[in-house]
Write a structure and sequence with these properties.
The complex is a heterodimer of chains A (about 260) and B (about 400).
Chain A: H1 2-16, E1 17-28, E2 31-42, E3 46-50, H2 57-64, E4 72-77, E5 80-81, H3 86-95, E6 96-99, H4 111-121, H5 127-140, H6 156-168, E7 174-178, H7 186-201, E8 206-210, H8 214-220, E9 223-228, E10 231-236, H9 238-243, H10 248-257
Parallel strand pairs in A: 3-8, 3-9, 6-7, 7-8
Antiparallel strand pairs in A: 1-2, 1-4, 4-5, 9-10
Chain B: H1 21-29, H2 34-61, H3 65-68, H4 71-76, H5 85-105, H6 107-125, H7 139-146, H8 148-160, H9 167-186, H10 201-227, H11 232-247, H12 250-264, H13 273-298, H14 302-310, H15 315-330, H16 332-345, E1 355-356, H17 357-367, H18 375-404
Helix pairs in contact in B: 5-6, 5-8, 5-9, 6-7, 10-11, 10-13, 10-16, 10-17, 11-13, 12-13, 13-15, 13-16, 14-15, 16-18, 17-18
The chains are: A alpha/beta (about 260), B mainly alpha (about 400).
Chain lengths: ~260, ~400
């Protein structure tokens, strides 16, 4: 009976938690980049990851869709365990959208084709349906008039908004943001953050974002996770994180960037 | 001074007068300082004098009988005269493609088609003998050459029609025409056979170059991908292939192909020496193309592959839809340079006893006492012919680059 309850509880967390990481380790050569990361993300939760550069925060979110391969520990995304099996990896990537620091739009394709490529090739959506969806998404990120242009003709902020639309076009359950505003000019950061806030407010979407935008973190995050030296040093709701950080390392970090 | 609420940007003014117009240009570029002025004063008369000497030689001293008396041999080598209708018929088919291209793409394609049509017309109507000195070119040959303008018109009409004027039709039609041309030149069963050994002249150079480019490109792409493969056996095979073919001179490879390839094939396997040479040239070029494309792949931001993978695209689509199109676009100049080299290298088939345009001409000079002093005219003629083709290739490359916006997007 007791074990059944435990199993049920386990199932409940599996259903509840869309990302589960247990003791994840990652080495680059001899460099120990992730040193036993254990955490989970609930459905619809907005988690902001901060930390000094080289702390492993980017590496960590890149393991969630296997752009980096972890060498030890378990990662379970939407009930699928991340293994060497290509089918598992592809299944996970279909459900996980990612937005990069350097946008990584495909420069040889129009904005519209950037967005419709994966839905038509991976989800096998008819081109017309994919285009209708793409135009809706462009509307949502505020640049419907740029559909026929090439990425090189857009500003950085517009490009990043296209990148968000491209990721959303696959209708992912989770969105990963890897420093989405770090390569932008100051006046363009706001327009990208607005799109991210709108996304966070929709409640449907699970978001894991690495960012240095503390204002954004304070406003929309459910939890703030701080990384240092490949480990999680703190994991608190924003109010506690900013107002009464227990950890000395967090206080030092905040004093350096605020 | 503008106040905060009425601030206006300063007006954009025209550039100083001295920097505009041809006087401004000459001052900036030819007479910027006394040294530059001195160089201009010395070199301009020198260039004029050299140009004058060239013009005087071309239209005065030079004796072009060597060229004018036997265009047939420069065009098709020793292909049997009584069967000359076969290459001429093939030529008519090829002209369809030029017409189509002009209609479909306009711009550069149209300009090339006009130049092509003009040269064809000149070949048809200029007063020279088509066979040997003193033999007047038969009217039917002239008629067949001039008829190319008609097939160009047919191609133009096809290119304009919404049903036929598609890139896919053009490519499929081009391949079909090329195969028909080769079959026609060899002869269908029952017709008199003309083995490739007897092909020659510019026709041979072009056939070798077109086949070479057509096959070297896809083979090069596969080799480049193979060299980056995660599978060690594939990778090693590709590296060895590329390094062997890049590391050995083409002439050596051509000799080896004649001696070594038969060893690897069953006895009496029907691969003649020309085909062997064509395969060698193709593989040689493929090895270089592979390295160019690999360079293009290496130059891409790693984020491109990451973004494509993160979207869930399978590996082969990441390569074929995202990486290769960008890599190839970035190395078009290098690839076209390689293909220009391939075209020029087709002359090396003289090594296996083939009479391409250069060797054909050389044998005419050396085999005829009356032309013994005309080597200069011959080599200039051959050089100009090669240059027309290679320059066209680099012109097309530049237009394609501009069209694709290399360096802009």
């Amino acid at each position: 009976m007791a074990t059944e309850t435990a199993a049920a509880a386990q199932d409940a967390t599996e259903v509840d938690n869309i990302v589960i990481c247990r003791d994840v380790h990652k080495w680059f050569g001899d460099f120990h980049a992730l040193r036993g990361v254990t955490t989970s993300v609930r459905r619809g939760e907005v988690v902001v990851i901060i930390g000094p550069s080289g702390s492993g925060k980017s590496t960590f979110i890149r393991t969630i869709n296997r752009l980096e391969q972890h060498q030890q520990g378990d990662i379970i995304v939407d009930g699928v365990e991340m293994t060497d099996d290509v089918r598992n990896v592809d299944a996970i990537r279909r459900e996980v959208g990612m937005v990069f620091q350097s946008f990584n739009l495909f420069p040889h394709l129009t904005v519209l084709r950037n967005i419709t490529l994966a839905p038509t090739k991976v989800r096998k959506l008819p081109q017309a349906d994919a285009e209708a969806g793409a135009r809706e998404l462009l509307e949502r990120v505020g640049i419907p008039e740029q559909a026929e242009k090439y990425p090189g003709e857009l500003s950085g902020g517009q490009q990043q908004r296209v990148a968000i639309a491209r990721a959303l076009a696959m209708q992912p359950k989770i969105m990963l943001f890897d420093e989405p505003t770090s390569a932008l000019d100051p006046e363009m950061i706001k327009e990208v953050l607005e799109v991210m806030k709108e996304l966070a407010a929709s409640q449907q979407m699970t978001i894991v974002a690495v960012t240095h935008e503390l204002g954004f973190a304070r406003e929309v995050a459910d939890r703030i996770v701080m990384f240092d030296e490949g480990q999680i040093v703190e994991d608190l709701p924003p109010s506690d994180f900013f107002n009464n950080p227990r950890n000395e390392r967090v206080r030092r970090f905040l004093s350096q960037i605020l | 001074m503008a106040t905060a609420d009425t601030w206006q940007p300063a007006p954009s003014l025209p550039a100083p007068r001295s920097e505009r117009g041809w006087i401004g240009w000459a001052r900036a570029n030819l007479f910027a300082n006394w040294l530059s002025g001195l160089v201009t004063v010395v070199t301009v008369p020198l260039i004029a004098w050299v140009l004058w000497r060239i013009v005087a030689w071309v239209f005065g001293t030079a004796d072009w009988t060597l060229i004018a008396s036997r265009p047939q041999q420069y065009l098709i080598g020793l292909y049997p005269t009584e069967l000359a209708w076969r290459p001429l018929a093939g030529w008519l088919l090829v002209s369809i493609l030029f017409g189509m291209a002009a209609a479909m793409w306009g711009g550069a394609a149209r300009r090339i088609a006009i130049g092509y049509g003009a040269i064809t017309l000149l070949l048809g109507i200029l007063p020279y003998g088509m066979f040997h000195e003193g033999v007047v070119m038969p009217g039917w040959i002239r008629a067949l050459i001039v008829a190319n303008l008609l097939t160009m018109a047919v191609g133009y009409a096809l290119g304009r029609s919404s049903h036929w004027g598609r890139p896919r039709t053009f490519v499929v039609g081009g391949i079909a025409i090329y195969v028909v041309l080769l079959v026609l030149l060899t002869g269908l069963p029952g017709m008199e056979q003309v083995p490739p050994r007897q092909w020659g002249g510019l026709m041979l150079n072009l056939i070798l170059a077109v086949s070479g480019i057509f096959f070297a490109f896809p083979i090069g792409v596969l080799l480049a991908l193979g060299r980056r493969s995660a599978l060690p056996v594939v990778k090693i095979l590709c590296v060895v292939f590329i390094e062997v073919f890049r590391g050995v001179p083409l002439i050596t490879l051509l000799f080896m192909s004649q001696v070594l390839v038969p060893l690897a094939l069953p006895e009496n396997f029907p691969v003649d020496s020309v085909t062997r040479a064509a395969i060698t040239i193709t593989l040689f070029s493929a090895a270089y193309t592979a390295e160019n494309i690999r360079g293009g792949l290496q130059g891409l931001h790693p984020g491109q592959a990451e973004a494509a993978r993160a979207l869930g695209l399978p590996g082969w689509q990441v390569t074929s839809l995202i990486l290769l199109p960008q890599a190839i676009r970035n190395v078009i100049p290098a690839i076209v340079g390689q293909f220009i080299a391939l075209f020029k290298d087709t002359s090396l088939v003289y090594i296996v006893g083939m009479l391409d345009i250069l060797e054909m001409g050389r044998s005419i000079v050396q085999g005829n006492v009356q032309f013994a002093d005309n080597g200069r005219e011959l080599f200039i003629f051959v050089a100009v012919v090669f240059w027309i083709f290679t320059y066209t290739m680099s012109y097309v490359s530049r237009r394609v680059e501009r069209h694709l916006g290399v360096g802009v997007r």
